[in-house]
Amino acid sequence: MPSSTACSTPPNSRRAASRPEPAAMSPRREHIERCLAGTRIDADPVGTAVAAIPDGEAHVWYRLPLRPAAVLLPLVERSDGVHLMLTERNRDLAEHAGQVALPGGRADAEDSDATATALREAREEIGLAMAQVELAGYLPPQPVITGYA
Fold first, then answer.
1. Count of domains in the chain?
2. Do 5 and 61 sit in the same domain of this protein?
3. Are residues 62 and 50 in contact, defined by beta-carbon separation less than 8 angstroms?
4. pLDDT digits (tens, 9 = 90+) for 68-95
5. Alpha-carbon torsion, ordered 52, 54, 59, 62, to 10 deg
6. Are residues 80 and 48 in the same domain?
7. Does residue 52 sit in the same domain as residue 81?
8. Cβ-count burial of 50 within 10 angstroms (0-12 exposed, 13-18 middle, 19+ buried)?
9. Domain extent at residue 27
């Protein structure tokens, strides 16, 4: 990988011991897993996202209060490399019709955490079965102008 895509995680810590090692891992996938190794789900994603908003900008840019939501970044490894799966929102929706998006959405009361939200939404939106998912890691919560975090 070029130095511009370096990450700070040591190469030997890329996978949890309980996960099976694939027969052959592409250099890109190995890099992604190494960079995300050791990341953890945020216990208070909305609080973290609100704390990231600069003073005085919250009411200007965001619908408050922020509501919990999550997305999945489904990476699909094929013979020609690693691809990010995107969806196109239904053109008949009241908001964001026809937009390209990641599978995900608002947290439901029965979702135990952001992972459960992202996996449920991916199942609903793209038919992704949990058996097909290998979680590589987590990215930090981000506030978005639509009022989710």
1. 2
2. no
3. no
4. 999 999 998 888 888 899 999 899 989 8
5. -40
6. yes
7. yes
8. middle
9. 1-38
Q: Which residue has the tokens 């408050």?
A: 64
Q: Mapped to the 3 state alphabet, what secondary structure does the chain carry?
A: CCHHHCCCCCHHHCCCCCCCCCCCCCHHHHHHHHHHCCCCCCCCHHHHHHHCCCCCCHHHHCCCCCECEEECCCEEEECCEEEECCEECCCCCCCCCCCEECCEEECCCCCCCHHHHHHHHHHHHHCCCHHHCCCCCCCCCCCCCCCEC
Q: Which two tokens stand for residue 23?
A: 């027969």
Q: Are residues 26 and 83 in the same domain?
A: no
29 in the same domain as 97: no
Place of tokens 């011991």: 17
Give tens-digit pLDDT for 99-143: 999 999 999 999 999 999 999 999 999 999 988 898 899 999 988
CATH number (domain holding residue 129): 3.90.79.10
Distance CA 143, CA 47 (A): 10
The DSSP bridge pattern shows strands 81-84 and 75-78 to be: antiparallel
Tokens of 116: 């459960």
Say yes or no: 87 and 126 in one domain. Answer: yes
pTM (global) more than 0.90: no
